[in-house]
Design brief:
- The chain is of the alpha/beta class.
- The protein has 2 domains: 255 residues, Acetylglutamate kinase-like (Carbamate kinase, 3-Layer(aba) Sandwich); 148 residues, VC0802-like.
- The chain contains 12 helices and 18 strands.
- An 8-stranded mixed β-sheet has the order 3-6-2-1-9-11-12-10, with helices on both faces. Strands 14-15-13-16-18-17 form a 6-stranded antiparallel β-sheet. The chain has a two-stranded antiparallel ribbon with strand order 4-5.
- A hairpin with a 2-residue loop joins strand 17 and strand 18.
- Helix 1 crosses helix 4 and helix 6 runs parallel beside helix 8.
- The two termini are 37 Å apart.
Length: 421
């Protein structure tokens, strides 16, 4: 018997029929003798509708009331799921975040989980009940409903799994696992049986949208094993792992120690709509980088790749970095109107870049991965504009028109194409 937390995203609970299908997955786990807790998102599109209503009511609304309205979407889903499970003969009860309780800080709209009291959930599961918990929400120190922001339901599920000491947390979504790259770009992309927390964190931050970064960070911190699997699979079908053996379908996200054979490169990611900005001949005084990026941070602009080149005389430097295309104009204006915090000779930039990255824990112990990546791109006539590296990833900025060609070339170069394709 295992203790499992299962989470269903918006597309998996989009209507009552989809909720009933999700409930069949839960029933299968219960009948297998497992203790199960469920975390649900709002029905697909419902949160956007609620946000629209709030903005229509007032553009300058109280964030506490925003949370009170927006959190209602998950409450509807949780209640419906509990009703459907009861109809199937499974004892179930719905819980809003404040009823668990899930304690958060006071940052309405983007709260962070501080603690969870698992007492009620543990008692329910030990007595054969299935608690259904609203994702995306909790309760503030002032007893107000809070919401966790984008990806909050994934984060809620991981936090609940950590609190009840679950054996694993199954994230049901509209894809059947984590792939070596986007299958829409590379049809030969293969689903991974296992991926480490670190690799998943890098892939999530580099453009893969299967799991939210906050959820992976929390899972890594608390050693919560995650499984990414599809709610659209037949709940009554035999449970077969990606390697063809009996087991849990989908991709297991786990500690690196659980992965016996580590690929040099595990995946290739792509993030489009990247803009590049270069400040030429910046006076290289102490604190100049802090002043530049502090100016951007003050405007809420997220900076990604950063490269700095010091001039021979040591008096000036060129600084190049990337921001999302949508933030390009705001970033340029912020740098031009910097209030004398730093000096530079010229600003140049362009939109329409794409960041392509290769990720793999095996890169730690293999030299020359970056060089081989550059060669693979050069063989396709693709020019590299920027390069950044970490211990387990190498990223390059290229023209967006070559993005998909680059992904396909690297996927093949590192042997990630399916052998039987």
């Amino acid at each position: 018997m295992a203790r499992i937390v299962v989470k269903f995203g918006g597309t998996s609970v989009a209507n009552v029929e989809r909720i009933r299908n999700a409930a069949r997955h839960i029933k299968r786990e219960v009948e297998a003798g497992n203790e199960v807790a469920v975390v649900v998102s709002a029905m697909s599109g419902k949160t956007n509708e609620l946000v629209g209503w709030v903005n229509e009511a007032s553009k300058f609304h109280d964030a506490r009331e925003y949370d009170a309205v927006v959190a209602s979407g998950e409450q509807v889903t949780a209640g419906l799921m509990a009703i459907v499970l009861a109809e199937m003969g499974i004892q179930s009860r719905s819980y809003a975040g404040w009823q668990v309780p899930i304690y958060t800080d006071d940052s309405h709209g983007a709260a962070r989980i501080a603690d969870i009291d698992p007492t009620e959930l543990n008692e329910r599961m030990a007595n054969g009940w299935v608690p259904v918990i609203t994702g995306f929400q909790g309760i503030s120190p002032h007893n107000r409903i809070t919401t966790l922001g984008r990806g909050g339901s994934d984060t809620s599920a991981v936090a609940v799994a950590a609190a009840v000491q679950a054996d694993r947390c199954d994230i049901y979504t509209d894809v059947d696992g984590v792939y070596t790259t986007d299958p829409r770009i590379v049809p030969k992309a293969q689903r991974m049986t296992k991926i480490s927390f670190e690799e998943m964190l890098e892939m999530a931050s580099l453009g893969a949208k299967v799991l939210m970064i906050r959820a992976v960070e929390m899972a890594m911190a608390h050693k919560v094993r995650l499984t990414v699997r599809s709610s659209f699979d037949d709940p009554d079908a035999p449970q077969i792992a990606p390697d063809g053996t009996p087991g849990v379908p989908g991709t297991l996200v786990c500690d690196e120690d659980e992965i016996m054979e580590k690929q040099i490169v595990s995946g290739v990611t792509l993030a489009k709509a990247e803009a590049k900005i270069t400040l030429r001949k910046v006076k290289d005084n102490p604190g100049v980088a802090a002043a530049i990026f502090g100016t951007l941070a003050d405007k809420g602009i997220v900076v990604d790749m950063i490269v700095q080149n010091i001039a021979d005389d040591g008096a000036t430097t060129d600084i190049t970095f990337t921001v999302p295309d949508s933030e390009y104009d705001k970033a340029v204006k912020a740098l031009e109107d910097n209030g004398g915090r730093f000096e530079y000779a010229r600003l140049s930039g362009s939109r329409g870049g794409a960041k392509v990255s290769v990720v793999g824990v095996g890169m730690r112990s293999h030299a020359g991965v970056a060089a081989s990546m550059f060669k693979a791109l050069a063989d396709k006539g693709i020019n590299i504009q920027l390069i950044t590296t970490s211990e387990i990833k190498t990223s390059v900025l290229i023209d967006e028109e070559y993005a998909e060609l680059a992904v396909r070339a690297l996927h093949t170069y590192y042997g990630l194409d399916k052998q039987d394709a």
